Amino acid sequence: MIPHFFTLMTRPDQAWTEIRRDEERNSSNYILHLFLWALLPAVCMFIGTRYTGWSLVEGERVWLDTPSAAQLSVLIYVTIIIGTFIMGFFLRWMSRTFEARPTYNQCVGFIAYIITPFFLAGLGALYPSRWMAITVLVAAGIYSTYLLFVGLPKFMRIDNRNTFLYGACTWGVGLLVLVNLKVPMILFWTLALDPTYERDTVQNQSYGFEENRPQEEPGGVDSERRFNERPNE
């Protein structure tokens, strides 16, 4: 699995030829790659949400407690696995239109290798930030798209003329699967599991605590003012 990872990142055209050859020998060759690499975003999410935290308001840091962070990480891991198998089903179903005859395991393996950049993008979860998430996800999406269009003719062995349409259909179905899995997962985690947040608010006031506020002293300016306002006897 490690050689496929490095060749996918450096020479994807050669990687797809090697992956197809390995899949023909053992159609479940992708299992280790999928189950191990899917741990990366889940573990990074746990570390980022539990120990690093995020900030939506200046002067405030938010964390999840340990059970809530663990629940979120497990749900992310399970969602990745389920989503990959669902995409494998749709990829095989669409292959009939483009005169390809891959097995179901080969389709799942193809998806597992395509989303490898998204596994690496999970490193961004170590520092939860809006701009960090946008940057790593856009970069992962671009390279995954490149892997998809390079891999379709080599792995699926379809005509180059059908590559664009097959790839576009795969992307469209992928977005639908992502939305229909991620949204219920987040709602279930938020509403059913009831996560616990921990906040660290920095005091940004002139006087942070009541006991530090200056108290009115006897005989001060207020007392003198009240004395001057008394009517003359």
From TrEMBL:
Keywords: Membrane, Transmembrane, Transmembrane helix. Residues 205-233 are annotated as: Disordered. It comes from the Bacteria. It is found in: Membrane. One of its GO terms (cellular component) is membrane. The keyword Transmembrane applies. Residues 210-233 have a biased composition (Basic and acidic residues). The keyword Membrane applies. The chain crosses the membrane at residues 30-49, 69-91, 103-125, 131-152, 164-189. Residues 7-179 form the Yip1 domain. InterPro entries: Yip1_dom. It holds the Pfam family Yip1. It is a multi-pass membrane protein. This is Membrane protein. It comes from Pseudomonas saudiphocaensis.
